[in-house]
Specification:
Elements (H helix, E strand, L loop, with lengths): L1 E11 L3 H12 L4 E5 L5 H6 L1 H18 L15 H25 L2 E5 L1 E6 L2 E6 L6 E9 L3 E3 L12 E3 H4 L8 E5 L3 H12 L3 E5 L11 H14 L2 E3 L3 E7 L4 E7 L2 E7 L1 E4 L3 E3 L13 E2 L2 E2 L12 E3 L10 H15 L13 E3 L4 E6 L2 H7 L3 E7 L4 H5 L6 E7 L5 E8 L2 H13 L4 H5 L10 H9 L8
Helix pairs in contact: 1-8, 3-4, 3-6
Bound molecules: flavin-adenine dinucleotide.
Length: about 475
């Protein structure tokens, strides 16, 4: 079956890159289709950002209730229902994903269900699913097929003993104990979530800090707080010899040549992602790939003319907001709405407690690059709002160029860090200096005052430290 008239754009994949691209093309009045093999929304809405944040909200509330005595409030007989927590997360996911269907209709995006395969440039065939057999003729194609969790060879993911984030987001039974392999954002968030509800969590990271991409000082605060919360964090540690039994998993933790064998009810692999290109290309379409990711030029066009790509499928950073940005840039560019912009500075957030948010470079990176910089730091302990809110953990750290004071990097650890980082993002975009941030009146009392005070601290002029 062939869909009669030709599309301006066919998007393959309906995640934050794909749905945003399709909607943007619709806004530009283009004839556009989006082919998605599952529910629209992609990893983000269905198996990533949104359902995980729903779980974390339950954990945050539970731990706040447990500490309510600090604020003079006694709450007796607090309990939780794990299946309801998971159920709520799935419902949130469904609500948000259904919203994409509405947006498709509003923007006149034709939605096809099934796996899209590029037979030749200008032709997408749906090779399975509800719309199997449909051929879509199109001027341009945007690949937005994203990634899936990386697994380990010879280790079957059964959803109970062995999980990736996907199975963990819908686990029916709370494990009594779990080993989480990988202490990046996803591993750290699951560690916080499960530990809060009493699962004995061992968080294992091969590199020398939790949250390896973050600034060493913010990561150290998370490691310290995780330890206080009861999470067993092992860094510079490799997991080997995983053996799956009927009711538990055993494995070796190897650090500095010493081996310790441990046992847990489950193991969760949070060891990164791999590109989704299965079935995507016929033998006649062979865009250049780099470690599995589609290689693109400054216009987000692959080495096959008329075939573009954006989002996780073009490689790191694997973040929803970056995926959306790239996709919109790609669509604007292909339809003559300005030269597509490349991704330069982008925030990265981890939503455990304390939260971590950063933008720009770490001190380590700047040292490697030999860039001269100054640091301003302000602890939440000195923030009236943070102390009044019983949230004194963490700090704001601002790194600026030594000569001009422009923002090179910003690192926040503490409550609501993920909501605050946007101010420094805008500052970077507008090339604001530490002096300008220092001279911006911030409302009192707010946590964001700490961002102004960190800027003041660059000059040794913070008032409250
Ligand atoms: C547990 C978890 C938590 C996360 N939390 C965050 C967070 O807090 N913040 C953040 O920024 N990022 C987070 N991420 C990452 C984020 O989800 C991704 O960066 C984002 O979804 C990438 O968007 P995308 O559109 O490129 O790909 P995806 O969202 O993966 O979408 C790709 C879509 O393409 C479909 N598809 C694949 N192949 C085909 C095909 N051949 N035909 C048709 N359809 C196809 C897939 O079914 C999928 O729906 C998280 C990820 C995980 C796993």
């Amino acid at each position: 079956m062939s869909n009669s008239s030709k599309y301006d754009l066919v998007v393959i994949g309906g995640g934050p890159a794909g749905y945003a691209a399709a909607i943007r093309a619709g806004q530009l009045g283009k004839k556009v289709a989006c082919v998605e093999q599952e529910r629209p929304g992609g990893t983000c809405l269905n198996w990533g950002c949104i359902p995980s944040k729903a779980l974390l909200k339950s954990a945050e509330l539970y731990s706040k209730i447990q500490h309510s005595e600090d604020l003079g409030i006694s709450v007796k007989d607090v309990s939780y229902d794990f299946s309801k927590i998971i159920g709520r997360s799935r419902n949130v996911s469904e609500t948000m994903a259904n919203g994409i269907g509405f947006l498709f209709k509003k923007n006149k995006v034709d939605h096809f269900v099934g796996t899209g395969s590029i037979t030749v440039p200008g032709m997408v065939e749906i090779i399975d699913g509800k719309d199997k057999g449909t051929n879509l003729s199109t001027e341009r194609i945007l690949i937005a097929t994203g990634c899936k969790p990386r697994r380990l060879p010879d280790l079957e993911v059964d959803g109970e003993r062995v999980m990736t984030s996907r199975q963990a987001l819908e686990m029916r039974k709370q494990p009594k104990s779990i080993v989480i392999v990988g202490a990046g954002a996803i591993g750290a968030e699951f560690a916080y979530f499960l530990n809060t509800f009493g699962t004995k969590v061992t968080l294992v990271e091969m590199l020398d800090q939790v949250l390896p991409v973050e600034d060493h000082e913010t990561a150290a605060v998370v490691a310290r707080e995780f330890k206080k919360q009861g999470i067993d964090c092992r860094t510079s540690t490799a997991v080997k010899n995983i053996k799956v039994g009927k009711s538990n998993v055993t494995m070796d933790l190897v650090k500095d040549g010493a081996t310790e064998t441990i046992k847990a009810e489950s193991i969760l692999l949070a060891i990164g992602v791999i590109a989704n290109t299965e079935g995507l290309f016929s033998s006649r379409v062979k865009p250049e790939l780099d470690r599995g990711y589609v290689k693109v030029d400054d216009n987000y066009e692959s080495t096959v003319k008329g075939v573009f790509a954006a989002g996780d499928i073009i490689g790191p950073p694997w973040l929803a907001h970056v995926a959306t940005y790239e996709a919109i840039q790609a669509v604007n560019g292909m339809f003559g709405h300005g030269k597509p912009k490349k991704v330069t500075d982008f925030p990265g957030c981890t939503y455990c407690l304390p939260q971590v948010a950063s933008i720009g470079k770490t001190e380590k990176k700047l040292k490697e690059e030999g860039v001269a910089y100054k640091v301003g730091k302000f602890p939440f302990q000195a923030s009236g709002k943070a102390v009044a809110s019983n949230q004194p953990v963490g700090f704001v750290k601002l790194i600026v160029g030594e000569k001009y004071g422009e923002i090179l990097g910003a690192h926040i650890v503490g409550s609501d860090a993920t909501e605050m980082i946007a101010e420094y993002g805008l500052g970077m975009k507008l090339e604001a200096t530490a002096e300008e941030i220092h001279n911006t009146i911030h409302a009192h009392p707010t946590l964001s005052e700490a961002m102004m005070e960190a800027a003041a601290a660059v000059f040794g002029e913070a008032i409250h430290i």
